C-alpha cells in the first residue's frame, strides 16, 4: 500500500500542494483529476521521486520513502510523449531496460506482455512507423517489463482518438488486474477518470477536493467545485451530443 501523509510542496514560495493525505491499495487504479495548474503532475512527480517533498511522508508497504531517490523506489512512469528511442525498433525499445537487468523479466514474460498489448505484428517497426496508440502500447510494455511496484501514467490517453482510447483503457485495466499492479494516472478528463479508475482523486488549488469511487463522486459530490467543474463538464458534453441529434432531426 502507498500512503501519503500531510504532503506539502511549494515552488518559489507559492504553495502548490497543501496537506495531501491519502492511501492507494495494492492493485488499485487511481486517477488524479483536476483543472490545469491544480498540481496533478507535481503530485505524480513527488510520488515518482523526481521532485522533492517539502514536508509530510511518503510510505510504501510501511517503509518511509520520503527521502529515497527515484531509482531506489521501484516505481516507473510512462510520460505523456512516450519518450521512446527513435533509432530503435519497437522490440528493442520494449526490452531496452532489460539489457543491464536481464533477470527482471524472462523471454516468456516479455512475450506474454507483447501479446497482452497486441504488439506482435509491430515489433520490427521503427517508432516513426507506429501510430499514436501503438506507440503508447510500446511505452507501456517498455515500462512493464521492468516490473514496477507502481505504474504512473501521465495523461496516457490525451493524444489518442475515441476508439483507440477505449482499447488502451481496456488494456490498462487488464494489465492492472492481471499483474495486481497499482496504477496512478494523471488526467484532466472527468470521463476518463470516472470510467477507468477504482477511485478518483480530485484536486483543486493544491488540495484534495474529494477522493472516492466513481459512483460516490457522481452520486455524492462533496462540494460545489465537483458539481460545477466535474459533473457540469460531463453534462455539457452530453447536452452537446443530444442537441446535435435534435437539430439533425428537425432539419
Ligand atoms: N518546477 C517548477 N517550478 C516552479 N513552479 C512549478 C514547477 N512545476 C510546476 N510549477 C507550478 O505548479 C503549479 C502546478 O503545476 P502542475 O504541472 O502540477 O499542474 P497540473 O495540474 O499538472 O497542470 P496541467 O493540467 O496544466 O498539466 C503550476 O502553477 C505550475 O506553474
UniProtKB/TrEMBL annotation:
Enzyme Commission code(s) on record: 7.6.2.9
SMART domains in the cross-refs: AAA
Cited InterPro entries: AAA+_ATPase, ABC_SmlMolc_Importer, ABC_transporter-like_ATP-bd, ABC_transporter-like_CS, P-loop_NTPase
Keyword flag Transferase: no
Xref: Gene3D superfamilies: P-loop containing nucleotide triphosphate hydrolases
Domain spans labelled ABC transporter: 2-230
Keywords carried by this UniProt record: ATP-binding, Nucleotide-binding, Transport
GO molecular function: ABC-type quaternary ammonium compound transporting activity; ATP binding; ATP hydrolysis activity
Top-level taxon in the UniProt lineage: Bacteria
Main enzyme class: translocase
Name of the protein this chain belongs to: ABC-type quaternary amine transporter
Species: Hespellia stercorisuis DSM 15480
